[in-house]
Automatic annotation (TrEMBL):
<dbReference type="InterPro" id="IPR011050">
    <property type="entry name" value="Pectin_lyase_fold/virulence"/>
</dbReference>
<feature type="active site">
    <location>
        <position position="197"/>
    </location>
</feature>
<keyword id="KW-0961">Cell wall biogenesis/degradation</keyword>
<keyword id="KW-0964">Secreted</keyword>
<comment type="similarity">
    <text>Belongs to the glycosyl hydrolase 28 family.</text>
</comment>
<dbReference type="Pfam" id="PF00295">
    <property type="entry name" value="Glyco_hydro_28"/>
</dbReference>
<dbReference type="GO" id="GO:0004650">
    <property type="term" value="F:polygalacturonase activity"/>
</dbReference>
<dbReference type="GO" id="GO:0005975">
    <property type="term" value="P:carbohydrate metabolic process"/>
</dbReference>
<keyword id="KW-0456">Lyase</keyword>
<protein>
    <recommendedName>
        <fullName>Exopolygalacturonase</fullName>
        <ecNumber>3.2.1.67</ecNumber>
    </recommendedName>
</protein>
<keyword id="KW-0326">Glycosidase</keyword>
<keyword id="KW-0134">Cell wall</keyword>
<dbReference type="InterPro" id="IPR012334">
    <property type="entry name" value="Pectin_lyas_fold"/>
</dbReference>
<dbReference type="GO" id="GO:0016829">
    <property type="term" value="F:lyase activity"/>
</dbReference>
<comment type="function">
    <text>May function in depolymerizing pectin during pollen development, germination, and tube growth. Acts as an exo-polygalacturonase.</text>
</comment>
<dbReference type="GO" id="GO:0071555">
    <property type="term" value="P:cell wall organization"/>
</dbReference>
<dbReference type="InterPro" id="IPR000743">
    <property type="entry name" value="Glyco_hydro_28"/>
</dbReference>
Length: 356
């Protein structure tokens, strides 16, 4: 922390070096602003180990970067959340109101950030979170946790503008990427996802303070042996009405993926979420293009939109998905009239929507 404080108080371009070795750390917050610094580079070549004593964590984050402009992180180092000792204390995958465990690395209110070559293993909760940031780029990430580790999302993005994540290898126990509310202009590309829950927009519509989502692109990626492929999920009984629009999924290869394409506007991961009122998240201008491969489920495409706010302008172009046993896959639709172009298989809305 003394090194950070000295660097932040410097001027011009500043560099912090973390040499090879293992370093045990409790929760730390690296705060800005650093008014005279034009670029602050952390060259991280070691392994940072999170404390396994949950009593040391007074908030839901281990390593937090807050309010800094021009941060660069490189060096190929590792952050190890040592989450296995805490996963059995996580209840967020079982109940809606829960105490979240610490995210390994969280970026809040940052501007002009580049993260390159970071490895994260076994977080207690999410690997990374990008919250209320502008111009955030992350490349060459490796994010790894066991398939059964709860809520270990690879990277969660919320309230941010101008986010790009590329060349990432993510195998974890929840969404490889989760794009939450309030995001604009997000590009996800060249991601290898699996195991995990897929590449997800959402969940949306859980809280009353949520904002719209606009301009999201997920492309040029491969998804393998996941519970979902590309997914939009919104809670039933949303407290407020919001919009999610101009969303594109393109050039995605699926291999043995359950639910390769899914819009789920009755999302409820628990036994009971209370009211069954329809989701108030309005989905429009959704494009699925050049998605191909194998489905581990007979229903390869599910478009289950809100009965209160049916989806508008959902387009499927050049879709080739086969059931893993070689037979034709099927398409299930509710409260949507999808538009088809190119060669699309499955094409007809024939499969029934499974009852919750």
């Amino acid at each position: 922390m003394k090194t950070w404080q000295a660097a932040c108080a410097s001027s011009g371009k500043v560099k912090i070096q973390i040499p090879g070795g293992k370093y045990l750390l409790g929760p730390l917050t690296f705060s800005g602003p650093c008014p005279k610094v034009t670029m602050l580079t952390i060259v991280h070549k070691g392994t940072l180990l999170a404390s396994t004593n949950l009593g040391k964590f007074k908030s839901d984050v281990w390593l937090e970067f807050y309010g800094v402009k021009g941060l660069r992180i490189s060096g190929g180092g590792t952050v190890d959340g040592q989450g296995a000792a805490a996963w059995d204390k996580n209840s967020c995958h079982k109940m809606k109101n829960c105490q979240a465990l610490p995210v390994s690395v969280k970026f809040i209110g940052m501007n002009d950030t580049i993260v390159r070559g970071l490895t994260s293993v076994n977080p207690k909760f999410f690997h990374m979170a990008v919250i209320d940031c502008q111009r955030f780029t992350a490349t060459d990430l490796t994010l790894t946790a066991p398939e059964d580790s709860p809520n270990t999302d690879g990277c969660h993005i919320e309230g941010s503008t101008g986010v790009e994540i590329s060349r990432a290898k993510i195998g974890t126990g929840d969404d490889c990427i989760s794009i939450g509310h309030g995001n604009t202009d997000v590009l996800i590309s060249s991601v290898e996802c699996g195991p995990g829950h897929g590449l997800s927009i959402g969940s949306l519509g859980k809280y009353k303070y949520e904002k719209d989502v606009k301009g999201l692109i997920i492309r040029d990626s491969k998804i393998t042996s996941t519970q979902n492929g590309v997914r939009i999920k919104t809670w039933e009984n949303s407290p407020v009405s919001t919009i999610a629009t101009n969303i594109t999924f393109e050039n995605i290869i699926m291999s043995n993926v359950s639910n390769p394409i899914i819009i789920d506007q009755t999302y409820c991961p628990f036994k009971n979420c209370g009211s069954k009122d329809p989701s108030k998240v309005k989905l429009s201008n959704i494009h699925f293009t050049n998605i191909r491969g194998t489905s581990a489920t007979p229903v390869a495409v599910t478009l289950e939109c809100s009965k209160g706010y049916p989806c508008q302008n959902v387009n499927l172009k050049d879709i080739q998905l086969k059931y893993i046993n070689g037979s034709d896959a099927t398409l299930a639709c509710a409260n949507v009239s999808p538009q088809f172009s190119g060669t699309v298989n499955p094409k007809k809305c024939t499969a029934p929507i499974a009852a919750a």
